Amino acid sequence: MNQLSIIGPTASGKSDLAIKIALQIDAYILSIDSLSIYQEIDIVSAKPSADELSQVKHFGINILKPDEYFSVDIFISLYKNLVKRCEEDKKNLVIVGGTSFYLKSLMQGLSKLPTMSQEIKNSVNIQLKDLPACYTLLSDIDALYMKNINKNDTYRIEKALLIYEASGVTPTKWFELNPPQAIIENLTIYNIEVSRDTIRERIKKRTSIMLEMGLIDEVCRLEKKYSRLPHSMSSIGIVEVLDFLDGKITKDEMCELISIHTAQLAKRQQTFNKTQFDDIISAPLEELEGIILSKLPLVNGNQTEF
Question: How many other CB atoms sit within 10 Å of the CB of residue 21?
Fold first, then answer.
C-alpha cells in the first residue's frame, strides 16, 4: 500500500482532483475535513455528493453524530485502521482535505499514554462530577498545560486527569518524557496553488449554491435535534445562519458573512500549508493532476502501485 496527500484551501478543487487520482491509481480516499466527519452536516461541510462517494470508497466521512466529540486521537486511530484495510484490499491511499492539522499530526505522531487501570478510570469518573474542581486542581499543578484548555472542555480535562492519576506526573512532564513518534513517513504532499481572488469568487459562488440546496433548513434541523451546544454547531456556515434565524442579521448579510469568514479560513489554511510542511509540491489545480500522474508509473493505462 502506497499513499499520497492532496491539500489546499477550501473551495480549491481538492475533492474532485482526489477522485480523479484515486480512480487512476486504484486507491481509497481518506478525508481530512473537520466537518465532513459528521453525519447530517452535509451542505455546510460541502461534503462530496452521493455520486462522488459512489465512484471511490471514502473514509473519514459520516463517522460521528454532530454531538459526538472528535479529536486528533480519533483521527489517527481511523487512519491506522484504514491502512490495514488498504493492505488487505490491495489498495493505495489518497489523503485529502482542508484540515491539514490532522495530516501534520500523522507526520509528527502523538505521545503514548500511560497504562490506565479500571480503578483509575473509575476514580477519574467520580472526580469529573465536579468539573470545576478538576479544572482548578489541574491548573494548580500544571498551569502550562491547562492554559489552552477551556474550563468546560470535559474531554481534555478528563484526559489530563487520567494522565496525572495514572503516571503520577503532570501532563507537561509526561509528554516531555514521552515525545511523539511519527505515524507516517515519506509521504508525498501535493498542494493546490490558487490566488485569493479566485478563492473568493469560488467561495461566493459555493455559498450561493449552498443556500439553494437548503442550507438554512439543514441548520434548523441540526439545531432542533442537537441544540447549539455541540462544538460542530460553532462552525462557519452554521453560526451565521443561527444569527440570521435570531434576527441579528439579514439574509444578504448572512451570505456575505459566510463568504467573508470562509475566505478568512482559506487564508489561514494557505498559510498553514506553506509553513508547516517541508518539500511539498505546489502547482495550480489545472496542472497538478498531470504532475501527480507523471510521478506514478502506469501499467496498461492503469495505476497499480507507486
Answer: 24
**Residue 257 is which amino acid?**
L
| Res 162: pLDDT | 96
d(CA 288, CA 2): 19
What pairs with residue 105 in β-bridges? Answer: none
CATH numeric code, 3-110+182-303: 3.40.50.300
How far apart (Å, rounded) are the C-alpha atoms in residues 142 and 134? Answer: 12
Distance CA 37, CA 103 (A): 15
Report DSSP state, residue 228. Answer: S
- The low-confidence residues of the chain, meaning pLDDT below 50, are 298-306
Residue 94 — φ and ψ, nearest 5°?
A: -115, 120
- Say if strands 298-299 and 302-303 run parallel, antiparallel, or are unpaired: antiparallel
Quick one: CA dihedral 63, 68, 74, 77, positive or negative? negative
Cα–Cα nearest to 98, from 25, 204, 18, 181? 18
Residue spans of the domains in the chain: they are 3-110+182-303, 118-177
pTM comes to 0.82
Distance CA 258, CA 266 (A): 12
CATH fold of 118-177 reads Histone, subunit A (1.10.20)
Phi, psi of 19 (to 5 degrees): -65, -45
Using an 8 Å Cβ cutoff, are 28 and 57 in contact? yes
Q: Identify the helix (H) or strand (E) that includes residue 284.
A: strand 281-284
Question: What's the confidence (pLDDT) of residue 306?
Answer: 44
